[in-house]
Structures are given as C-alpha cells and as structure tokens.
Amino acid sequence: MSTVREFRSDPGAVAPAKAAVREAQSPLEAVQRLIRAACEDLGLPPAVYEYLKEPARVLVVNIPVRMDSGEVRTFTGYRSQHTDVVGPTKGGVRFHPAVTLDEVKALSMWMTMKCAVLGLPYGGAKGGVVCEPRTLSRSELEGLARGYIRAVAGFVGPERDIPAPDVNTNAEIMGWMLDEYSSLRGVVTPALITGKPEVLGGSAGRTGATGRGVVITIREAADRLGLDLRGATAAIQGFGNVGSHTARYLQELGVRVVAISDVRGGVHRRDGIDVEAAIEHTRRYGSVVGLPGTDPIGSDEVLYLPVDILVPAALENQITMANVDQVSARIVCEAANGPTTPEASEALVQRGTFVIPDILANAGGVTVSYFEWVQNLQNFYWPEDEVEARLEDMMVRAFNTVYKVHAQRGVSMRRAAYMVALKRLADAMAARGWL
Ligand SMILES: NC(=O)C1=CN([C@@H]2O[C@H](COP(=O)(O)OP(=O)(O)OC[C@H]3O[C@@H](n4cnc5c(N)ncnc54)[C@H](O)[C@@H]3O)[C@@H](O)[C@H]2O)C=CC1
Ligand SMILES: O=C(O)CCC(=O)C(=O)O
C-alpha cells in the first residue's frame, strides 16, 4: 500500500464512533460511522473514507405498472452501487413501503463490507421499490418486477451489477426479472441475477444459504464461548427466508427455538416450537401467529426473552439505545442487515453479550450468490453438497479471521469485521493506484 498517513477529521464528516455520544439517526449515518472508525483504527489514508462515504452511483426510477383495475400506477424504485473497486457490484432488491434512498444507500454500503469480509470479488449494491407487496395481486407484482428491471437495465448486468432477492422478493421474482432482461437484450443472461429458480440456472442451496451461514457463525461463536448448543434456547424475530431457515438449521443442531415472530405477531413455547410446523403454518396462513400448541407473544417481546441466542432476522433498527437494556440473550446474531444500532451493539458488548455482526453473520446468502454467478458464467453446475461444503469453508474462514482480530486487538466482533473489510478494500485501492 502507498504511504499510510494519519487519518484526520474533516469538519463536514460524521463524528468518529469513539467520540459519538448521540446515537446514529439512520442506517446511513450508522454505516458511515462504522467505516470511518475502522479507517481510524487501521490508520488508513483519508482518501479511503472519501471513496467509501457515499455510493459511487445511485439511480432513481419511476416504474409505471398497469394494475388489475386497468389504471396505471407509478412506483418509485432505487438502485445504489457503492463501489466497484474490487469488481462488479452485488446486492438484493427489496420491496417494502418504508424503502428510502438513504436506506438503499446504507444497504449497498453494508454489502461492500460483507463482500470484503468474505473476500468476494464484488463491491456492494442494493435496490428497493417503495410498495406494499401484500396489497398487490400476483400479476401486479410481476408487472412491478418486470418494470423495475426494465428501468435499471442499462445500469446492471453480469459484469456491472448483479441483483438478488431481499425482503419481500424471492426466486420467482428473480425469474421474472431475468426473463424481462433477457428479452430486452435478446440473449438469455442467467448471470444477470442470482437467487433465481434452479431451472433457470439458480444455484442449489441458495434459498437456505443465508440461514445456513447464520447458523455456522452461531455454531462457531458457541464453540468459543463454551456454550453447548444441544438444549440451548433461541428466539427469532422475522420468519421469512432468513428467519425460517435459521430456525430450521438451529433445530437440526439441537437448539430449542422457543419464540418466533413476524410482522403480524409472535408465538412462544417454552419446550420448543416445531419449526417445520411453523414453516407450514406460515405458508398456509401468511403468518406464524396462531400456530397450534403455542402461546401468543408480541413481535417485540421476542427480543427480550431470557434465551441463549437471539436472532433478529427482520429489518434495521430493532435494538437501539431505547430498548437495549431489555435484551438479555448471551449471543445476538444479526441475521438482518443493521438490526442493532452501533451504539446499542456497543452497549451489549460492554455487558458481555457476544454480538455476531450482520456483515459476517448473514454473508452466506451473497456467498452462494457468488457461487451461482460463477456457475452461470461457466455454464457448469455443482451439486448441493459441493455448494454447502464451499459455503462452510468460506464462512468458517471468515469467522476465524474476524475472531482473530477481535481477540488480538481487543475490539468488538463488529469493529474487527470492519477492520478486515477495510484492509482488503484499501489494499485494492492502493493496487489500482487510487491512494
Ligand atoms: N434473503 C437473503 O438472502 C438475505 C437477507 N438478508 C436480510 O435479512 C433480513 C430478512 O430478509 P428476508 O428473510 O429475505 O426477508 P423476507 O421478506 O423473506 O422476511 C422478512 C420477515 O420479517 C418479518 N418482519 C417484518 N417486520 C417485522 C417486525 N417489525 N417484527 C417482526 N418481524 C417482522 C416479516 O413478517 C417476514 O417474516 C433483511 O434485513 C435482509 O436484508 C441478509 C442477507 C441475505
Ligand atoms: O445474494 C446477494 O447477492 C445479496 C443478498 C443481500 O441482499 C444481502 O446480503 O443483504
């Protein structure tokens, strides 16, 4: 790397996390603080933060959709591409009423950090559409998915930016987007998008990959802490793709999943919930609420149960300085992106909670997306056991790398993960002559 200079504050920039007394007011501010703090920890040249403090490009689009009523309604969509310093950008597309440009920017920045922790050859990206998918019919949803990819088609592509599923999007929606893009380009382009159905070139194991990765990190953490997972208890907030697979794989390791919640409410059972029954109930009724043999519990209450493992697997900002004192789990594993503010996370760590940060915990999804993209480019497909073995290997290596920095430097796992990521990104910048 070029000469390492002292990292100086500039008056316009966000305050370093060390000196922060005020809780970050938004996910964007939170991720900026985290990046800046890691740059300081590593003594990186100021240019590193300058390159990373905002996304390189953002696109705002209006998406007209013909509704079932015959009227045309316009939806707002975003795509944020944070940095392509190590390769094309990569990240999911979220359909949610609360999506904002700043949220999408923050999510793209977390993607950069996540890919760098795992050593994947991508920068981060994220997309979002402001909509309430629960109020859309299937054909309206399909129109929106096709409209979104049409609107960003000149901006994405296998060598530029590769979308994937996120909140309220899934393999079927990725299939529609792939079809639309392929029609526009006049050539079938499986490497455009990951998390698609296997019959269209999706990777074996992608659907469960994020949950599988989450559970690998919990297993590694439990090992370091001397916690026997057989008989340990867990509570899970959010029971979509990530939450449900996490619950399934935890149960396979002998963990008792005593509480689960989704946006409509939660369920509790001291002796452990039958996870497969909860998945089936959710498939049928759209929520875990009302699962026979369980007691009702509020969505938020799940966060406060005296369990060994708490897995927030829904949205950002669920654990903040306002409620952190009520969290009593021994391990908090951030399956969602940004579920804990940096300040609340620091408070948990001070109390002895082992926090596995999002950019490590939920990296299994993008890792298998990377495998999917590689398979698409080679047009050669791997069996599921090979995907799982490679995922296991990469997640364990990433966990060990972060844990080593955590132990050697006496910093939190989050700070350590950012340091690992920033070191790789800064090395790439230096090698490209940017520093
Ligand atoms: N799908 C993926 O591969 C990856 C997803 N993530 C992150 O994981 C999180 C969850 O994503 P998915 O499972 O894909 O989304 P999803 O749409 O499949 O599921 C989201 C779940 O969260 C629940 N939820 C929403 N608001 C809630 C609230 N206030 N309280 C309790 N539950 C609530 C929903 O009801 C649903 O059960 C997000 O933060 C996402 O960015 C991270 C890495 C990869
Ligand atoms: O699979 C991917 O490419 C990205 C998944 C994602 O959006 C995330 O990790 O937050």
UniProtKB/TrEMBL annotation:
<feature type="site" description="Important for catalysis">
    <location>
        <position position="166"/>
    </location>
</feature>
<protein>
    <recommendedName>
        <fullName>Glutamate dehydrogenase</fullName>
    </recommendedName>
</protein>
<comment type="similarity">
    <text>Belongs to the Glu/Leu/Phe/Val dehydrogenases family.</text>
</comment>
<dbReference type="GO" id="GO:0006538">
    <property type="term" value="P:L-glutamate catabolic process"/>
</dbReference>
<dbReference type="InterPro" id="IPR006097">
    <property type="entry name" value="Glu/Leu/Phe/Val/Trp_DH_dimer"/>
</dbReference>
<dbReference type="InterPro" id="IPR036291">
    <property type="entry name" value="NAD(P)-bd_dom_sf"/>
</dbReference>
<dbReference type="InterPro" id="IPR046346">
    <property type="entry name" value="Aminoacid_DH-like_N_sf"/>
</dbReference>
<dbReference type="InterPro" id="IPR014362">
    <property type="entry name" value="Glu_DH"/>
</dbReference>
<keyword id="KW-0520">NAD</keyword>
<feature type="binding site">
    <location>
        <position position="90"/>
    </location>
    <ligand>
        <name>substrate</name>
    </ligand>
</feature>
<dbReference type="Pfam" id="PF02812">
    <property type="entry name" value="ELFV_dehydrog_N"/>
</dbReference>
<feature type="domain" description="Glutamate/phenylalanine/leucine/valine/L-tryptophan dehydrogenase C-terminal">
    <location>
        <begin position="203"/>
        <end position="433"/>
    </location>
</feature>
<dbReference type="GO" id="GO:0004352">
    <property type="term" value="F:glutamate dehydrogenase (NAD+) activity"/>
</dbReference>
<feature type="active site" description="Proton donor">
    <location>
        <position position="126"/>
    </location>
</feature>
<feature type="binding site">
    <location>
        <position position="241"/>
    </location>
    <ligand>
        <name>NAD(+)</name>
    </ligand>
</feature>
<feature type="binding site">
    <location>
        <position position="369"/>
    </location>
    <ligand>
        <name>substrate</name>
    </ligand>
</feature>
<dbReference type="Pfam" id="PF00208">
    <property type="entry name" value="ELFV_dehydrog"/>
</dbReference>
<keyword id="KW-0547">Nucleotide-binding</keyword>
<dbReference type="InterPro" id="IPR006096">
    <property type="entry name" value="Glu/Leu/Phe/Val/Trp_DH_C"/>
</dbReference>
<dbReference type="InterPro" id="IPR033922">
    <property type="entry name" value="NAD_bind_Glu_DH"/>
</dbReference>
<dbReference type="GO" id="GO:0000166">
    <property type="term" value="F:nucleotide binding"/>
</dbReference>
<feature type="binding site">
    <location>
        <position position="210"/>
    </location>
    <ligand>
        <name>NAD(+)</name>
    </ligand>
</feature>
<keyword id="KW-0560">Oxidoreductase</keyword>
<dbReference type="InterPro" id="IPR006095">
    <property type="entry name" value="Glu/Leu/Phe/Val/Trp_DH"/>
</dbReference>
<feature type="binding site">
    <location>
        <position position="114"/>
    </location>
    <ligand>
        <name>substrate</name>
    </ligand>
</feature>
